[in-house]
């Protein structure tokens, strides 16, 4: 197991450099210039050149990339061009809000999705299964930002039960959690249902029924445990979503976080800040996939041989 984990960690190195290349060059190829947000009306071309030289924007993209990568490897994400503050400080200030929303939405979608999938699989082919499957289909097609606006209109504006926006107390977390977690519920429930149905057709389940075990014991103690491997795969991929998937939700609910920080930086073409945010989100996805591989290998030793 240790060797498997070490091999996975080594494979992250080339992935990290590829991700850094993509993040850097994509933002620099986007039309726009951060200098335009710093110059005052009537500024001379000489002032523009001075600002470009100050932030290293007068160099070639290759030189800028290796300069940024050198600082990155030493733990320096650079300084925000527009705000004039270290990128790491800005990320550290906004990261707790994103983690709060992401973890709440992940727990909500995981617990609700697994419960719905177990119920649907246990009552396969009945009206209960049809109703849950319908909600799964609905949840997988409704855009999260549209659902967020609808929730604000009904529960915040019309009923006044919760705040419209911001991050003031636990009540302001309810609507964003629902809006961000609905799609996850549909995905987790669908995977759980399919995995449990396939597992329930195996010979050992027939043997358990022949021994006279109660159906709910078979479903919860045996079938669900064997069906969790594909569910863990989905959940591990959603770990990265803890940081990155709620970008639009943070913007809709005017919450502080990496999503709001990234959108503002994109509008201002703040290269160092955009690069830092995107790299953070990308690494969250990569680390989530790594955790999923390790957990799968621990649950099913055959995975170690397949992925060796």
From TrEMBL:
Protein name: ABC transporter permease
Domain ABC transmembrane type-1: 95-292
Superkingdom of this protein's organism: Bacteria
PANTHER family named among the record's database cross-references: DIPEPTIDE TRANSPORT SYSTEM PERMEASE PROTEIN DPPB-RELATED
Pfam families: BPD_transp_1, BPD_transp_1_N
Transmembrane found in the keyword field: yes
Signal peptide (from-to): none
Keywords attached to this entry: Cell membrane, Membrane, Transmembrane, Transmembrane helix, Transport
Origin organism lineage: Bacteria, Pseudomonadati, Pseudomonadota, Alphaproteobacteria, Hyphomicrobiales
Keyword Cell inner membrane: no
Principal location listed in the UniProt entry: membrane
């Amino acid at each position: 197991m240790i060797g498997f984990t070490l091999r996975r960690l080594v494979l992250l190195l080339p992935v990290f450099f590829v991700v850094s290349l993509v993040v850097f060059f994509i933002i620099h190829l986007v039309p726009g210039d951060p200098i335009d947000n710093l110059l005052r009306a009537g500024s001379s071309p000489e002032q523009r050149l001075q600002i470009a030289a100050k932030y290293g924007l007068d160099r070639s993209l290759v030189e800028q990339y290796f300069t940024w990568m050198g600082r990155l490897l030493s733990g320096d994400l650079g300084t925000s061009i527009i705000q004039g503050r270290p990128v790491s400080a800005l990320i550290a200030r906004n990261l707790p809000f994103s983690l709060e929303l992401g973890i709440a939405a992940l727990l909500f979608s995981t617990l609700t999705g697994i419960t719905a999938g177990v119920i649907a699989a246990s009552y396969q082919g009945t009206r209960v299964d049809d109703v849950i499957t319908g909600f799964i289909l609905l949840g997988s097609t409704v855009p999260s930002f549209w659902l967020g606006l609808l929730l604000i209109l009904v529960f915040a504006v019309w009923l006044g039960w919760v705040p419209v926006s911001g991050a003031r107390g636990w009540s302001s977390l309810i609507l964003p959690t629902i809006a961000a977690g609905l799609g996850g519920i549909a995905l987790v429930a669908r995977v759980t249902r399919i995995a449990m149905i396939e597992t329930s057709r195996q010979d050992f389940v027939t043997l358990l029924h022949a021994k006279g075990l109660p159906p709910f014991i078979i479903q919860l103690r045996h079938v669900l445990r064997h069906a969790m491997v594909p569910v863990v795969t989905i959940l591990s991929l959603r770990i990265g979503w803890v940081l990155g998937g709620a970008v639009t939700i943070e913007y809709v609910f005017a919450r502080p976080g990496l999503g709001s920080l990234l959108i503002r930086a994109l509008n201002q073409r703040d290269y160092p800040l955009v690069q830092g945010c995107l790299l953070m989100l990308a690494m969250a996805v990569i680390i989530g996939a790594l955790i999923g591989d390790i957990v799968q290998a621990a649950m099913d030793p055959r995975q170690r041989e397949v992925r060796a």
